[in-house]
Amino acid sequence: MAAVAAGQCDVTVVNTYYFGRLMKKKPNLPLAIFWPNQDTKESGVHVNVSGAGITRHAKHQVEAVKFLEWLSSEKAQKLFADVDMEYPANPTVKPDALVAAWGEFKQNPLNVVKAGELQTTAVKLMDRAKYK
Amino acid sequence: MQRSPTSIAKAPKAGAFVFKFRLPSGWTLAALLIATLTLLPVAVVLSSLLTPEWEIWTHLLEYQLPQLLTNTFWLVLGVGMGVAIIGVSLAWLTAVCEFPGRKQFSWALLLPLAIPAYVTAFVAIGLLDFIGPVQTLAREWWGPIEFPSIRSRGGVIAVMTLALYPYVYLIARNAFLTQGKHALEVAQSLGLSPTVGFFRVALPMARPWIVGGVMLALMETLADFGTVAVFNYDTFTTAIYKAWFSLFSLQAASQLASLLIVFVLVVLLAEQQTRTRMHYTQTGKHSVQARILLKGTRAWLATGFCLAVLALGFIIPVTQLLLWASEVVEQDLDARYLGFFWHSLALAAFAALLAGAVALLLSYSTRQHPGLLLRMTARVATIGYALPGAVLAVGVFIPVAWLDNRLIAAGWVQSPLLQGSLMVMLLAYLVRFLAVAHSPIDSQMHRITSSVDEAARSLGVSGLSLIARVHLPMLRGGLLTAAALVFVDVMKEMPITLMTRPFGWDTLAVRVFEMTSVGDWSRAALPAVALVLAGLAPVILLTRYRSK
After folding, report:
1. Residues facing B13 on adjacent strands
2. What does pLDDT average to over chain B?
3. How many CB atoms within 10 Å of residue B532?
4. Is A42 an 8 Å CB contact of chain B?
5. Which residues of A touch B136 (CB under 8 A)?
6. Model ipTM value
7. Which residues of B touch A (CB under 8 A)?
8. Do B59 and A124 touch (CB under 8 A)?
9. Residue B22: is its pLDDT beyond 70?
10. pTM of the prediction?
């Protein structure tokens, strides 16, 4: 993003919260967000999900459940929204004003489990396209 | 089964062939076991050549190998030439010539050894990238200008050369000090100018040393993971990492590792060849020879050259690290750092103890049974220093995972026991750094002659108390050096730690990797400062040893 602002290139792909954090620190940077694949026929923008779970053999299951409940509570979700500039997963919590100002966008509904299954193929595809 | 040499000596009886088969002694067994530990990962990785998975091979062959081979070829060539030219010229200047600052430079030029190459790498990128301070300032002054990109083949070669030239410098300087000046005097008395004398006499005589130093630097180059990862310059080590953790294919990782091993073995053979050709002939070392006195412009050129290398390799990187670290120290230095510190220290200390103990055992076995078998065993056991960490990570993980599966199949354990433990990591460290621990211990072991034992026995000290009261105290210096060297090497180690650490065992080096992979140089600087501080210890040890 710093390179885009300095004029080295025109576009970059980032997670929104990096953009949010940077703009909070330096609001005057000549950068703007762009949501790709928004036409009705298109699939929508990819959304990264940070998930959490408990393994079958976990030693402290009760505590782990409590921790996950806390992570999804309004209090914790507000921290993610305000400090990290992320989109909160809990629907009762509103995103930060700066984040809300980016507006609504069409999300890609693909199940992330599928993304995990296809990772190997994706990496091979990147090799083929010579992406570094 | 091996017969010890003594059984051969005792065996012949008049007129009859008597074969005595003895069980190998405990010492021999221990040494053989240690060598097996080293050979196992190599064998495991190479065996993937025998059971190829064609689907993976075709993908690698088509889309990765051409690039990996080209990149590795230029990197080895560039770094090899770079360290040879810079190392030899600095060694010649400080060993034979006289110019302002020579004395200080002769030890200070070793300082870049304290900085891991991957740290120099991210400082160089942070400073010289498009958005770095240098280019930004240049744009402010002169408007838009095109700089050659630091993230390029030339950039990687330059950084690695600056980090690795001390290997050549150190060894070549020794050669010049012990023979160069005298040879040069002879050459001069035969009417050759100093320049001609350097090229026709001193340089050819020092060649085995120089080649040895360059080979060491090349082993580090082939083993390097952190530097090429920062530069996004794909070599075999980064490809191994990617195959394992992005393609989720341990098989592909192992196939790539087997190719890397082939290169490494070539370099290793070359290095072992040159070792046998190094002969020290000390001709009146203490007589003070006149140095070649450089005057005027030439003297200042020499000083300027030394200063430039020192500035680029040490002063500028360290200054920039400290500046960055001070920017983030308040907000970033929190409780997590206790964890990083503790993990780095604990792993380094444990590995140092382990490697020290095993090296002692190996060295002691060769002393108890001096012979070809154990000499070769010790040789084999200590080739790990040439094996890249990325290769060892794969080569140790596969047999341990196999053992885990056996244990589960046998119903002894419910879930994988060893894979997620520290065992894989510590074993890989041990193989990689055994040579580092072995050489200082072994060189002191040679000083304990058999007459020492005889003297002790005549005083009634024998058996275990001989070891405890005579041998160990005599080995103390070597043991301490060995432990210190391994400690620092493990702290800086990146690929093994990154690939085989159990869940939650992030170290300072892992933190550097994570912060540099998102391009956050100032937050990477904080753990890097700690690594440089640790790295300074053995360099100081080295310079003090040399000044004696």
Report:
1. B16
2. 85
3. 22
4. no
5. 6
6. 0.75
7. 59, 63-64, 130-131, 136, 139, 144, 232, 234, 242, 246-249, 415
8. yes
9. no
10. 0.83
